[in-house]
Design goal:
The complex is a heterodimer of chains A (about 375) and B (about 350).
Chain A: H1 14-31, H2 47-56, H3 74-87, H4 92-108, H5 111-122, E1 128-131, E2 147-151, E3 154-162, E4 172-178, E5 190-196, E6 202-208, E7 214-227, E8 231-232, H6 238-250, H7 260-270, H8 276-304, H9 310-334, H10 341-357, H11 364-374
Parallel strand pairs in A: 1-4
Antiparallel strand pairs in A: 2-3, 3-7, 4-5, 5-8, 6-7
Helix pairs in contact in A: 1-3, 4-5, 4-6, 6-9, 7-9, 7-10, 8-9, 9-10, 9-11
Chain B: H1 3-19, H2 22-29, H3 35-43, H4 62-74, H5 81-94, E1 103-106, E2 114-119, E3 122-127, E4 132-133, E5 140-144, E6 148-152, E7 160-163, E8 169-172, E9 180-183, E10 187-189, H6 193-226, E11 228-229, E12 232-233, H7 238-259, H8 267-296, H9 303-313, H10 320-334, H11 339-345
Parallel strand pairs in B: 1-5
Antiparallel strand pairs in B: 2-3, 3-9, 4-8, 5-6, 6-10, 7-8, 11-12
The chains are: A alpha+beta (about 375), B alpha+beta (about 350).
């Protein structure tokens, strides 16, 4: 009997539920009524908001106190992130640093790196970008060509990274680069560098997305000097380190809440007199959402236990992305017309960004490949 | 799962592996009562798991019963294990002594009504009774009206036997005909009986579907690894891998949804589970049959024993639409700004 994918039921502890109420009250007082809420984690950023969260102790909250963390559990962190997303708070500035760059440094970084970066991240003052994809390397990440050669005291980096969200506003990038020539083992000889995005040899060019937003970038490295103390972990260990980020990157509530505000506004639109079809759809989307959330909390429990649930995370991301792709498509068909401005705006923003849901953080095809491997098919 | 449940799962798994082969299921679907299987479960106390000991059951939690029911569905067992559990639960709740032998249960057809109408010392059962699963094989039926239940001997009723598409015998009552007459004192008050039946029915259908789906995923993965085309196992083809990944996602979702009602009979949890699991049946049947090719479309292959049952169970005790609307009514009553609170309370 196949026993691989098990999502153990887990009830959030009372401490997490108490924290939820604090976060809810904070968000309500911060955002106000005229704020157009968007639950896509990438939809809004505010350094001011991130710093306020930092002051509350809600960034880097699972990290040791000596690095500015709050030593709280993954389940408590889960509650904070889902409350922020559901409320449509502008979390984009610190999101990547909190979710994966920080945990990466905590796990693989040197003592100096932890001390240098983590407290600033936790304060909501220091933001990171992901540096994985390149113009010719997307899903096939091991084919990257950005490379560095060893020099005295460090490395000289050349090449470029693409689709780096917020690189024009963030301070650092963790870039995966080739530090040894390609061999038969494509995953060998890769390393992760912390690149200072303000370096004069780094050029950042914005790429407009189809919604007209300047979100992602191409980042060029032109003989950028990376000192030895900016190498994350061991040179050559980059692949393993990148893979270890995936459990964090793929299993969280941001993988199924991107379209959530459209559902909220739909419920507002139908008011107290929905027809049967509208009721059916609300029930369908909510039963799916609650089930996804329960599975995602199960994975937070695995992370809390120190496990590395790569396949489970891929499964949540795939199911969650399919779900958030469907939400605006199904709701638009049954929303009462004429739409309110608020509903129309929420819906159209979601539809414009929806193609990215099943691309960012691993395409659906890659995720299904990971799941298939978990099933023993490949 | 606690230790007790681990033991229950292992014991029932062994019994079903030994005694619920394809040949046994085929005999059950041909209308035979598979006594050896029932007897083995009964003597192990598994037919009355989750029923209080002082009422004549085996004790333990509702979850114990549901885990046995999941196992039964993994093997497509042609026995009224779920019906027996529901009937026994209702009888215990109404303070009626459990009769011996397998029990079944039925209430009103969807949208219909059942009433017990007293006529002197007799009671007429009137209304539209839902098909009685395994009615032919059970000497005692529990018939459920809105706020009353009765234990009835089917000999007193005017049922016609038929088979549903799961190959389960059902006793039906053509619309407009009288159901039958029983002794008046057999009717016992049980407030909210029909609603309770619907909930227990949904809880058991969810676990039945979950069991069948678990088995379907196993079978599909195994078949893809063993079936060769174009000189290699079809599991090597990305198109097949991607479909099986979707299947695994659906099954994992259903397992999680079903787990959430092992220890909760909150109506909202039931609604979420029945809605989510029922919705998954279409994809699960679609992908598993596609992977199995024409072989899986034959009566001979065991896949259809599971998929035919899924197609029946998803309709029983409220389709997805019914439960989706139930859930949505709670949401709409609280309004858009409370939606998140509803979601986060469904822990």
């Amino acid at each position: 009997m196949f026993q691989g994918l098990k999502f153990e039921p887990l009830t959030l502890p009372a401490s997490a539920e108490a924290l939820r109420l604090d976060v809810r009250a904070f968000v309500e007082s911060e955002l106000g009524n005229d704020y157009l809420r968007n639950s896509d984690f990438n939809a809004g950023e505010s350094a001011e908001f991130s710093q306020k969260l930092g002051a509350k102790g809600w960034i880097g909250m699972t990290w040791p106190k000596q690095y500015g963390g709050a030593e709280r559990s993954f389940l408590e962190r889960y509650v904070v992130t889902e409350e922020l997303l559901a409320a449509g708070a502008p979390v984009g500035a610190h999101w990547i640093a909190d979710r994966q760059s920080g945990p990466l440094l905590l796990k693989f970084g040197t003592e100096d790196q932890r001390a240098a970066y983590l407290p600033r991240v936790a304060k909501g003052e220091c933001y990171f970008s992901i540096g994985m994809s390149e113009p010719d390397s997307g899903s096939d990440l091991a084919s990257i060509r950005t490379s560095a050669v060893k020099v005295d005291g460090g490395w000289i980096l050349n090449g470029s990274k693409i689709w780096s969200s917020g690189a024009h506003m963030n301070h650092f990038m963790v870039a995966l680069v080739r530090t040894e020539p390609v061999t038969d083992n494509r995953h060998a000889g890769l390393s992760q560098f912390i690149v200072d995005l303000s370096d004069e040899n780094v050029t950042i060019t914005g790429i407009e997305n189809l919604a007209g937003d300047r979100d992602f970038n191409q980042v060029f490295f032109d003989d950028v000097f990376i000192s030895d103390d900016a190498v994350v972990g061991e040179p050559g260990n980059g692949w393993e380190q990148v893979i270890s980020e995936l459990g964090y990157e793929r299993s969280g509530p941001e993988r199924f809440l991107s379209a959530y505000r459209v559902l909220v506004e739909f419920v507002r639109e139908v008011g107290s007199a929905p027809n049967d079809a509208q009721l059916t759809l609300i029930g369908r989307l909510t039963s799916n959402l609650i089930t996804l959330r329960r599975m995602s909390i199960s994975v937070a429990g695995m992370l809390e236990q120190g496990k590395s649930p790569i396949v489970e995370a891929a499964l949540i991301k795939d199911l969650g992305n399919e779900y958030e792709r469907q939400v605006p498509e199904l709701l638009r068909l049954l929303a009462p017309e004429p739409y309110s401005r608020r509903f129309a705006e929420t819906l159209s923003q979601c539809i414009l960004h929806a193609p990215s849901f099943t691309l960012r953080g691993g395409t659906r095809e890659i995720l299904r490949g990971v799941i298939a491997r978990g099933l023993g098919l490949r | 799962m606690n230790e007790q449940q681990q033991l229950i799962v292992e014991t029932s798994h062994r019994i079903f592996s030994d005694l619920c082969t394809k040949e046994v299921v085929d005999r059950g679907e041909a209308g035979e009562w598979v006594q050896t299987l029932w007897h083995a479960l009964e003597t192990s106390g598994l037919t009355l798991a989750g029923i209080a000991e002082d009422a004549g059951g085996s004790g333990g939690d509702v979850a114990d019963a549901l885990l046995v029911i999941r196992q039964a569905a993994e093997f497509a067992a042609p026995i009224p294990l779920a019906e027996n559990f529901i009937a026994a639960t209702l009888l215990v709740e109404a303070g009626i002594e459990l009769p011996a032998g397998p029990l079944t249960v039925a209430g009103a057809l969807e949208g219909g009504k059942i009433e017990f109408s007293q006529q002197g010392s007799a009671t007429d059962i009137v209304g539209d009774l839902a098909p009685v699963s395994f009615g032919l094989h059970c000497n005692h039926w529990v018939i459920v009206a809105e706020n009353e239940i009765a234990v009835v001997s089917p000999k007193a009723l005017n049922a016609a036997p038929m088979l549903n598409i799961a190959g389960e015998s059902e006793s039906i009552f053509p619309s407009g005909t009288s159901i039958g007459s029983i002794e008046a004192l057999n009717v016992v008050k049980l407030n909210g009986a029909s609603e309770r039946l619907r909930q227990l029915g949904a809880i058991t259908r969810v676990n039945l579907m979950c069991g069948a789906m678990t088995s379907i995923l196993d079978m599909s993965v195994a078949y893809a690894l063993e079936r060769k085309q174009f000189g290699r196992a079809i599991s090597q083809f990305q198109a097949v891998q991607q479909q099986l990944a979707i299947l695994a996602g659906e099954v994992a979702s259903c397992q999680r949804a079903a787990d959430s009602i092992l220890n909760s009979d909150a109506v909202m949890d039931i609604a979420i589970a029945k809605a989510r699991v029922g919705e998954a049946v279409q994809k699960v049947a679609d992908i598993s049959h596609q992977v199995h090719g024409a072989m899986g479309y034959t009566r001979e292959h065991p896949l259809n024993l599971r998929t035919r049952r899924l197609w029946v169970w998803r309709d029983q005790y409220g389709k997805e639409t019914y439960w989706q609307q139930q859930l949505a009514r709670t949401i709409v009553a609280r309004g858009a700004d409370a939606l998140w609170d509803v979601i986060t309370r469904a822990n």
